């Protein structure tokens, strides 16, 4: 699972949160501890704590925090945080009343689920594409090597033929020189 948990808070007061992790770590408790330690300066940061990356985005007085597996790339995490912020702001403008927290939590759950599903499928497709590209490259290289092998074989045959022709030429040239020498000897 890439994105394991997320929340949005004003200071240390959590407005909505969702924990998609299935492990033994209580990410809700850990995220609240981390939330109190986040400095209110800077816009985007990441920290590694308890085997997870804690990534946050500060926007005015709101903190958007997501907890991801340490193997998750920062590009994906910050893309998630940006989309989380946009979705939260858009939805919170529309909502009023008692079901606001439930709707925001549902939005966060769906967003985390989509990122975990779509992004892992995309990563799998990307890995399959890279594997296919490498396979094609290897096939191309192999055919070039085989083609070179055929050319080398052809060159070896031509070299052998040239050697035979040069031996024949040398013998004929020697015979011609000998004949010419005898003619000169007879004519003198």
TrEMBL record:
Residues 117-144 form a coiled coil. Residues 123-183 form the V-SNARE coiled-coil homology domain. It is found in: Endomembrane system. It comes from the Eukaryota. It is a single-pass type IV membrane protein. SUPFAM superfamilies: SNARE fusion complex, SNARE-like. Its main location: membrane. It holds the Pfam family Longin. GO terms for biological process: protein transport; vesicle-mediated transport. Belongs to the synaptobrevin family. This is V-SNARE coiled-coil homology domain-containing protein. It comes from Polarella glacialis. The lineage of its organism: Eukaryota, Sar, Alveolata, Dinophyceae, Suessiales.
């Amino acid at each position: 699972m890439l994105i394991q948990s997320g929340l949005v808070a004003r200071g240390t007061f959590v407005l909505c949160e969702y924990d998609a992790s299935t492990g033994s770590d209580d990410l809700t408790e850990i995220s609240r501890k981390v939330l109190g330690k986040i400095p209110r300066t800077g816009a985007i940061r990441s920290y590694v704590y308890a085997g997870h990356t804690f990534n946050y985005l500060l926007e005015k007085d709101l903190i958007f925090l997501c907890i991801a597996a340490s193997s998750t790339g920062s590009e994906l995490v910050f893309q998630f945080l940006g989309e989380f912020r946009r979705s939260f702001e858009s939805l919170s403008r529309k909502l009023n009343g008692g079901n606001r927290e439930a709707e925001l939590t549902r939005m966060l759950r769906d967003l985390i689920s989509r990122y975990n599903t779509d992004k892992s499928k995309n990563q799998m497709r990307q890995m399959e594409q890279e594997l296919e590209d490498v396979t094609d490259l290897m096939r191309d290289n192999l055919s070039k090597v085989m083609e070179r092998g055929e050319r080398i074989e052809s060159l070896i045959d031509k070299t052998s033929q040239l050697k035979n022709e040069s031996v024949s030429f040398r013998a004929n040239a020697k015979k011609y020189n000998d004949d010419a020498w005898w003619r000169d000897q007879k004519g003198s």
